[in-house]
Write a structure and sequence with these properties.
Elements (H helix, E strand, L loop, with lengths): L4 E4 L4 H9 L5 E2 L11 H11 L3 E4 L6 H4 L3 H22 L4 E7 L22 H16 L3 E6 L2 E2 L6 H10 L5 E3 L3 E2 L2 E2 H11 L5 E4 L6 E2 H11 L7 E3 L1 H4 L8 E2 L12 H12 L3
Parallel strand pairs: 1-2, 1-3, 3-4, 4-5, 5-10, 6-9, 7-12, 8-13
Antiparallel strand pairs: 8-11
Helix pairs in contact: 1-7, 2-4, 4-5, 6-8
Bound molecules: NADP nicotinamide-adenine-dinucleotide phosphate.
Length: 278
């Protein structure tokens, strides 16, 4: 097991779970203040100073709609920064490993059978494109890279779809949710608890979703039921939303390489029971 680990993005949704639940003992988790990724020189000096044997990158430009008009910044954070980290890490310590998170949005969501780790990519948004290019650049820059694709995250530490739905319900706001986009909602704690296992395998591309498929509408409905409310919510169609970015309709990540994660419903129960205030 790696002895000195750097976690980037610990203030984010996934980073929070990895910091607290992945079980790495010697974990450095600098905030943006300590290590601003906008400066390559600072990244390089930090990596040189500490000589990590594993870097877990949970940072990213993740605002899917904004990426359509702000692609330069999106490309910087999702492509150039991870490529630089991958390259620098390899130069400093060729045996060190890198975990980079990617997304189901590298696929177009038109395949009813879902997507394997080596399925051809076909992003339909700028965000998806940046994640796809980022994957390719990292794999080229560092042969010890693990690309871990995840989807539809929820969990403690930062606001997310599930807690937004429950907050809306508590405020008696009208809830209207799209019912024709399907994916695998994924509990961040399940990802965190599987990470040590991922790096026992060979470098490459992995899918780590929680199991079970849902639409956003079904996920919202399920979250409210587990919160102990059968309150009515309305459904709508993707066309009704007028979003800037196009989203995959059926982006199902198939995990064919790792032990299966628990179902998202188990994660939803844990999250709502233990982390959402009644
Ligand atoms: N959320 C999802 O549903 C989802 C789905 C599929 C894939 N993913 C992937 O999973 C990974 C983690 O996503 P997430 O939702 O946990 O991300 P997130 O909550 O948006 O967190 C992003 C992290 O990046 C940090 N960051 C951004 N710009 C930075 C900079 N210039 N310097 C230093 N730190 C910077 C943020 O720090 P601050 O707190 O200071 O802003 C934050 O800690 C990403 O690669 C994402 O593409 C997420």
């Amino acid at each position: 097991m790696p002895t000195k680990v750097l976690l980037l993005g610990a203030t984010g949704l996934l980073g929070f779970a990895i910091k607290n639940f992945a079980g790495f003992e010697c974990l450095y988790s600098p905030t943006r203040k300590d290590l601003d990724l906008n400066y390559f020189r600072i990244i390089q000096e930090y990596l040189k100073l500490h000589n990590f044997d594993l870097i877990i990158n949970c940072t990213g430009y993740n605002v899917v709609d904004e990426a359509e008009s702000d692609y330069e910044n999106c490309y910087y954070l999702n492509c150039l920064v991870p490529e630089f980290i991958a390259k620098t890490l390899f130069e400093l310590n060729p045996k060190a490993k890198l975990i980079q998170f990617s997304s189901d949005y590298v696929f177009d969501g038109k395949n009813a059978n879902g997507y394997l780790e080596d399925s051809p990519k076909s992003p339909i948004s700028k965000y998806g494109l940046s994640k796809s290019i980022g994957e390719d650049l990292i794999l080229k820059a560092n042969p010890n890279s693990y690309i871990v694709r995840v989807s539809w995250l929820f969990g403690p530490g930062k606001s997310n779809f599930v807690d937004k739905i429950i907050t809306k319900h508590k405020n008696s706001d009208k809830i209207v949710i799209v019912d024709d986009q399907f994916g695998k909602p994924t509990y961040t704690l399940d990802i965190a608890k599987s990470l040590k296992n991922v790096i026992c395998n060979r470098p490459g591309i992995y899918h780590l979703p929680s199991e079970g498929v849902a639409s956003w509408y079904e996920l919202a409905k399920n979250a409210l039921l587990k919160y102990d409310s059968n309150s009515e919510i309305q459904s709508c169609k993707t066309e009704d939303l007028n979003s800037f970015a196009t989203r995959p309709k059926y982006s199902i990540l198939i995990n064919s390489k790792l032990p299966e994660s628990p179902s998202y419903e188990v994660g939803l129960t844990d999250y709502i029971t233990n982390y959402i205030q009644a």
